[in-house]
Amino acid sequence: MEERLLGTISMGVRAPIIREGDNLAQIVADSVINASRNHKISIDDKDIIAITESIVARAEGNYVTVDNVAYDIERKFGKDAEIVLVYPIMSRNRFAMCLKGIARAAKKLIIVLRYPSDEVGNKLVSDEEFEKAGFLDNSRMINEEEYREAFGYAKHQFTGVDYVEYYSSLVKEENCEVEIVFANENHQVSSLGTNYLCCDIHTRHSTKKYLKQYTGGLEKVVYGLDDICTESIDGSGYNPDYGLLGSNKANEERLKLFPRGGNELVLKIQELVKEATGKHVEVMVYGDGAFKDPVGKIWELADPVVSPAHTDGLLGQPNELKLKALADGKYANLSGDELKKAITEEIKAKGDNLVGSMASQGTTPRRITDLVGSLCDLTSGSGDKGTPIVWVKGYFDNYTK
């Protein structure tokens, strides 16, 4: 038997353009099987097939309109309400369309932006501009006049957009009043009004909890983006778990929501591949990867989770040993075949106890779905490579396999 010289391999798989109502499970299974035959690469047990969330939502027709958003906002807050929007991220794709719908239903919006950067690392102002303006920290709540005096009309380093001006203009176009303030502390936000819509993603639970508990003697209405569009409105799409979180702009009046039917999909794909090849693969739906850009400092994860649906074999954390720790430490006196044999025997001896040994070796314990989802997001790319399916081989192999 020849020695295996390749480890984990991640491959983008091309697929047809997906439309609403398509049999996505069959398309995904056929695409991977055809790629396997065409490129003479075998499908093996424990291979991973990952599908980007966008085509899952598209196939199931999970869309809402700006008017649907406005309807649900009015249903929850009442007609012509004054609403405080807490900690939205700065994104034309992710939040701007949500903002249009909210403004369409409200009389006035008070938008609270985190500064100098939002939750996922988008900077309102650069570190240099922040320091130059004489700010020692970001603990003060400031208004738009103070912000402009300190920073002027700062633009996002990648998009070239002044998000303060952009969000203000979107709200005004909907005949809604707007006020923008800048804060990072929940206690500063809690005195701004009585109607709150928490727009943060990963900190939303603690933000909502704080605003509900610390009322300041006022009766407050508190919701999050994950509470909006959680059920169908006149036949629209919906997401019962995440609402508007994970949504993307489809066009000027339409948003694509995070997919809701992924659990059935991944099991069906697993079944179809098993029937066709006899192999048991793992399957997942993935969105944004959980990684941070070292230059822009943007944390990619604007979706509520990396993977909204996956088969059971992707649960948990990977079983890994830090090989360099063994090579430089316990077996520093060995090399070549002797070193390989010693490490191989150590891995076999630890077996299922590998996870328990990770912390002592400095290996960060992360979930398999987050790691694989990030790998797949990088493989498929943020642009259009035409590979909404990613096929991963050898992810569960270790040094002994």
Describe the SSE topology.
Layout (H helix, E strand, L loop, with lengths): L8 E5 L10 H16 L8 E5 H7 L3 E3 H12 L3 E6 L9 H10 E8 L13 H6 L9 E2 H8 L11 H11 L3 E6 L3 H4 L5 E4 L5 H10 L7 E4 L23 E4 L2 E3 L5 H16 L4 E5 L22 E2 L12 H8 L5 H15 L3 H5 L9 H13 L8 E5 L8
Parallel strand pairs: 2-12, 4-5, 4-8, 5-7, 8-9
Antiparallel strand pairs: 1-14, 2-14, 3-11, 6-7, 10-11, 12-13
Description:
The chain is of the alpha/beta class. Helix 9 links the parallel strand 8 and strand 9 (221-224). The chain has 14 helices and 14 strands. Helix 1 (24-39) packs parallel to helix 10 (262-277), helix 3 (66-77) crosses helix 4 and helix 4 (96-105) packs parallel to helix 7. It has three domains: 1-52 and 261-314 and 375-401, 2-Layer Sandwich (60s Ribosomal Protein L30, Chain: A), CATH 3.30.1330; 63-256, no CATH class; 319-365, no CATH class. Helices cover 35% and strands 15% of the residues. Mean pLDDT is 87; it is low at 352-362. The strands form three sheets. A six-stranded mixed sheet has the order 6-7-5-4-8-9.
Tell how many strands the DSSP assignment holds.
Answer: 14
- Annotation field: number of helices: 14
Order of helix and strand elements from N to C terminus: EHEHEHEHEHEHHEHEHEEEHEEHHHHE
The overall pLDDT, averaged over residues, is: 87
User: How would you write the strand order of the largest sheet?
Assistant: 6-7-5-4-8-9
For the biggest sheet, the summary is: 6 strands, mixed
- Give the domain tally: 3
Q: What structural category characterises the helix and strand content? A: alpha/beta
Please report the distance between the alpha carbons of the first and last residues.
Answer: 12 Å
